[in-house]
Write a structure and sequence with these properties.
The complex is a heterodimer. By secondary structure, chain A is mainly α. In chain A, a hairpin with a 4-residue loop joins strand 1 and strand 2. In chain A, about 75% of the residues lie in helices and about 0% in strands. The radius of gyration of chain A is 22 Å and the shape is globular. In chain A, helix 13 runs parallel beside helix 17. Chain A has a domain of about 230 residues. Chain A has a two-stranded antiparallel ribbon with strand order 1-2. Chain B is mainly alpha-helical. Chain B is flat. The chains are: A mainly alpha, B mainly alpha.
């Protein structure tokens, strides 16, 4: 006999961030049905709704993390941490969008409805405690982003990007699902905890079919995080998508995918065997090296940032390869890195979107940044900090992110990985600093036409502040570095204890 | 004996399912007029030419209609199990399904207002 689950307000409380996002998506869909333009009122509403999500995350932070909805989702500190990260990234994308959409004639409510749906998919993804809900979140996120990528319908590059991303994404998801079906066949469950218990108790972990299933799931995630054998789509898609969406893909989509990847592998598939960490280590080396080397020769700044984001996925994979049950250090360093990386990438893309033009040279060639640093001192300074941070130069957040990841790798016995990581960082300096050289040391030929409106300036200012604050912020007014590191530690502590 | 009587309705269904087309085709053969032409001798293919290029161009509207059909057809798959267990699920199930249908109806309102349901 089926007994309906009790409806209590506690569950609604725990789901509040998700409910706000889904409700907001539906609301903006209705705005889209009845009127086309997005007014000031709607724009303010979007910011308020995202702020409400952050507010609820803060309110839930001390909640005890238990699986809810029959073990479909888990609202623990890990999921709340990533809910906050993806919300901040989406907010950054929204603030960057306002002026960009006006200029490119894309100003429609559906854009924001899709953004809200994508964000809610990410929240499901980071809170997933079951392979089915993980898939649901992944699809809700991906389908919305597929549409957003092709949002400039009349643009050739946008069409190419959307089609490429959709077709390859569908293949990746199919791999993933195939793996999931094998896992279900072997363990009889799709629940994370159930898979972990089954895999350890009955020696399924040694079954070749199980290894194949995990490899397929790994392939699905590797596509989403743009790891090397599955990275081909990245430059084309990042180039064709509207710049605020590129920013979202490089930050929120990646962070959410890494979160699900980390939780699933940490809980279910690590199990003390070094097999997976070996495979992930190989992926990490390939991803970093390819990303950095190909970025060296890029002339289009969006493509350069695409390869840079591949390289950064490689650094984060070092952290995943160094995961261990005994120490939470590697896992917490991944969280810190993703937070730091998100801020610097959002900032850089906000600036790129301000320089981008609709006609002519499109303002995407790095050469077109000539003279920007002197004519717009604030933008120049901001870009300089973003590039230094992406390259990993102290005292920025990018440096500390890399430091934590590499030291976790050394602690986990992967000294070779850390060395390759450091060498790669040195390599990346060349193309990040080239942007600064062009900006400050070359004279611009054409008059610069930069659209830095209030939204873009706010994004730049906040990311600038966050990058420096994450580097050496003291415990005053705001929670400082120590608190943030403590957050990342408590966020992963519980998963580690479950994984025992 | 028991088993046989249990499956009797299935057998009956087969018989009726077989009888109806036999009856229809039979009556049409006996009663209907026969005026054969070139077009009528062609095998029946739901209105398309049986021989010809398969790479025909379809109006993109077909795809839109197919897409909308799938979206709104899937809801029926979810409603059936709910309807079967309607009494056990009670008010909770009713509210759940109301929320589900509300979201779908918003989708319907959207495609309607956007003119996706109009052919021209």
């Amino acid at each position: 006999m089926i007994s309906p689950p009790p409806v209590n307000t506690e569950i609604l409380n725990l789901l509040a961030p998700l409910l706000v996002l889904v409700g907001a998506g539906l609301l903006f869909l209705m705005f889209g049905a009845f009127r086309n333009r997005v007014g000031t009122f709607q724009r303010a509403l979007i910011v308020i709704l995202y702020a409400a999500v952050l507010f609820y995350v803060g309110k839930l932070w001390n909640a005890e993390g238990w699986p809810i909805l029959n073990g479909m989702l888990i609202i623990d500190r890990f999921s709340l941490f990533f809910t906050a990260v993806v919300t901040i990234c989406a907010l950054g994308s929204v603030l960057t969008s306002a002026n960009y959409l006006d200029r490119f004639g894309l100003d429609r409510s559906e854009y924001f409805a899709l953004l809200f749906f994508a964000t809610s998919g990410m929240v499901v993804l980071v809170s997933a405690y079951n392979l089915i809900s993980l898939f649901l979140g992944l699809e809700l996120m991906s389908l919305s982003v597929y549409v957003l990528v092709g949002y400039r319908r009349r643009d050739f590059f946008a069409n190419e990007a959307a089609l490429k991303y959709f077709l390859l994404g569908a293949f990746a998801i199919a791999f993933f699902l195939y793996g999931v079906s094998m896992i279900y066949g072997l363990t009889g469950t799709t629940n994370f905890k159930g898979i972990m218990v089954e895999a350890t108790s009955r020696g399924i972990a040694r079954d070749p079919l199980f290894l194949l299933a995990v490899a397929l799931i790994l392939a699905g995630f590797a596509f989403k995080i743009s790891s090397v054998p599955f990275h081909m789509w990245v430059p084309d898609v990042y180039q064709g998508a509207p710049t605020p969406i590129t920013s979202l893909m490089a930050t929120a989509v990646k962070a959410a995918s890494f979160a699900a990847f980390l939780r699933l592998f940490y809980m279910c598939f690590m199990m003390g065997s070094s097999k997976w960490s070996g495979i992930i280590a190989v992926l990490a080396v390939l991803t970093m090296t390819l990303g950095n080397i190909v970025a060296l020769v890029q002339r289009n700044i969006k493509r350069m940032m695409a390869y840079s984001s591949i390289a950064h996925a490689g650094y984060i994979l070092i952290g995943l390869a160094s995961l261990s049950i005994e120490s939470t250090r590697a896992a917490s360093s991944i969280l810190y890195y993703l937070l730091a990386y998100s801020f610097m990438t959002i900032g850089a893309f906000a600036l790129i979107s301000a320089v981008e033009k609709r006609e002519g040279t499109r303002g995407l060639d790095i050469a077109e940044y000539a003279g920007l640093g002197l004519k717009k001192p604030f933008l120049g300074l901001a870009m300089a900090v973003f590039m230094f941070s992406l390259a990993g130069i102290p005292p920025t957040a990018g440096f500390f992110g890399k430091y934590y990841i590499f030291s976790a790798a050394v602690e986990g016995g992967h000294v070779g990985l850390a060395i390759i990581g450091v060498l790669n960082s040195a390599l990346s300096l060349y193309y990040y600093l080239r942007v600064l050289v062009v900006m400050y040391m070359q004279k611009g030929v054409e008059p610069l036409d930069v659209h830095d409106d209030l939204g873009v300036k706010v994004v730049l200012l906040v990311s600038l502040f966050a990058i420096l604050w994450l580097g050496f912020g003291p415990e005053r007014l705001l929670p400082g570095v120590e608190s943030i590191l403590e957050w990342t530690r408590v966020s992963v502590a519980k998963i580690a204890s479950l994984g025992m | 004996m028991l088993a046989a009587s249990k499956y009797a309705p299935v057998v009956l269904l087969f018989v009726i399912a077989l009888a109806i087309p036999v009856l229809m085709i039979g009556i049409a053969t006996i009663v209907g007029p026969r005026r054969l032409g070139v077009k009528k001798k062609v095998p029946f293919e739901c209105g398309t030419e049986p021989i010809g290029d398969t790479r025909k161009r379809f109006s993109v509207r077909f795809f839109l209609v197919a897409l909308l059909f799938i979206v709104f057809d899937v809801e029926a798959v979810f409603i059936f199990p709910w309807a079967v267990l309607f009494r056990q699920l009670g008010l909770f199930g009713f509210i759940e399904m109301a929320v589900f249908l509300f979201i779908l109806i918003l989708g319907l309102v959207y495609v309607w207002k956007k003119g996706a349901l109009e052919w021209e």
